[in-house]
Design brief:
This protein is mainly β and about 425 residues long. It contains three helices and 25 strands.
């Protein structure tokens, strides 16, 4: 169901749908049709289609949301979607930004099973294709967000679906000469907070809160949701999905349902895990912690302390960590000069946007230095790990010294070892 989601969770669903699809912070982008499969219910040739979709999810929790003056961590995704019928479809989900996570996730339903390959990862996964379509069983796609073929034959059917889930719904009046109608619904989220009085006999008071609004623009001539905005408010997830191109009724060639895996690609276990993320790590300490198998600088500029850190797992299956980050501040101050360290496992090397600037030798490894708006960025590669240091105060020489000290954390959790 492209959209059999609880409207109250729509903002979170939209975020997950755009972030986990490309591993770690990639979204599980469930651009799916009427019965839950990309392409909807079984289709004849006349209802086959090709569509292009863009999606932007506002970054609230990543490291870049914690620092003013650096490039946004908002996730920008482009999707190409071919659908012949409910058992034969292909989606190419490209995460464009942030640059360190950029890449392509290809999902193909070949009539029997679903193949998923994240380009640059050297891995792939296979999932059974349930009878009648993909349904909601796609483990790597997680939740779904309404975009594309509508889950109803009329605008009122869609609106009623939301009403049955306990949300307020309004439908715009039709404009003369236009087939577009807007469904507005909310709230997107519900929460609660508790407070206990100061006296010895005080009781706990719970306050229920809710907010956010969703807006779906529906092309009623073709019953397609062509735009979906999820506005969660300043402290909650927001997202925007738009259909930018669609061609209906065209022939979808068999080649779109073939899977081309790179030589040596290894298969991940299809255990139903949509990807994992975790945080932590010596907050307030002078050093940086990192997951086993990833980089950890052994030298940090004096005075800098970690104030936040986290890691992310693969969306292709299991919870092996493929990315990590740490934010340091001078003397731990909230608005003090910062040092941001990010890294991600990428067998395809440094993404092109991060190659901008001047080539830099980082302990014999490929690196690039770039400066804009008072922030210096150093990107380098160590084996299959790409790492980035950014600072508004430290020099390139100092960033290079930090990068050159980075070693791989041993699998046992011991000290790092240079590869």
């Amino acid at each position: 169901m492209i959209g059999r989601i609880s409207p109250r969770n729509a903002a979170i669903a939209g975020a997950a749908a755009v972030l986990a699809a490309l591993a770690g912070a990639f979204l599980a982008m469930s651009v799916v049709g009427g019965d839950g499969a990309p392409g909807g219910e079984r289709r004849g040739e006349a209802t086959a289609f090709y569509a292009e979709i863009t999606a932007t999810v506002v970054d609230l929790d990543g490291p870049r949301a914690l620092v003013d003056g650096i490039t946004s961590g908002d996730h920008v995704t482009r999707v190409r979607w071919w659908s012949a019928d409910a058992r034969h479809w292909r989606t190419e989900i490209e995460l464009v930004a942030p640059a360190l996570e950029a890449g392509m996730l290809v999902n193909v339903a070949d009539g029997t099973q679903i193949w998923s390959h994240q380009q640059g990862s050297g891995t792939y996964a296979r999932y059974p294709l349930p009878d009648g379509g993909a349904g909601s069983a796609l483990p790597l796609m997680g939740v779904s967000t309404l975009i594309g073929p509508a889950p109803g034959a009329t605008i009122e059917e869609i609106a009623d679906e939301f009403r049955t889930r306990g949300t307020d719904v309004t439908v715009s009046e039709p404009d003369t000469g236009s087939a577009l109608r807007v469904i507005e619904y909310g709230p997107l989220w519900h929460g609660s907070s508790s407070e206990v009085g100061s006296s010895a006999t005080a009781t706990e008071t719970t306050t229920e809160t809710s907010g956010g609004v969703g807006r779906m623009t529906v092309d009623t001539e073709h019953m397609w949701i062509v735009r979906h905005e999820l506005d969660g408010g300043p402290e909650h997830q927001s997202a925007l999905l738009e259909v930018t191109n669609v061609r209906r009724g065209e022939h979808i060639g068999e080649r779109q349902f073939r899977v081309d895996l790179p030589a040596g690609a290894s298969e991940l276990s299809a255990d139903g895990s949509p990807g994992c993320s975790s945080g932590g790590g010596s907050l307030g300490g002078p050093g940086i912690t990192a997951p086993a198998g990833m980089l950890r600088p052994t030298y940090i500029s004096p005075g800098y302390a970690t104030v936040a850190s986290g890691s992310s797992g693969s969306s292709g299956g299991g919870c092996d960590e493929v990315g990590a980050w740490a934010l340091l501040r001078f003397e731990g101050g909230g608005d003090a000069p910062f040092l941001l360290f990010e890294q991600r496992r990428r067998v395809d090397g440094i993404p092109e946007p991060l190659r901008a600037g001047t080539p830099v030798d980082v302990a014999g490894r490929e690196g690039y230095g770039f400066e804009a708006d008072g922030v210096r960025r150093l990107t380098w590669r160590d084996g299959d790990i790409v790492a980035v240091l950014e600072s508004d105060a430290l020099s390139f020489d100092e960033l290079t010294r930090i990068a050159g000290s980075a070693t791989i954390v041993a699998e046992s959790g011991g000290r790092g070892a240079r590869r």
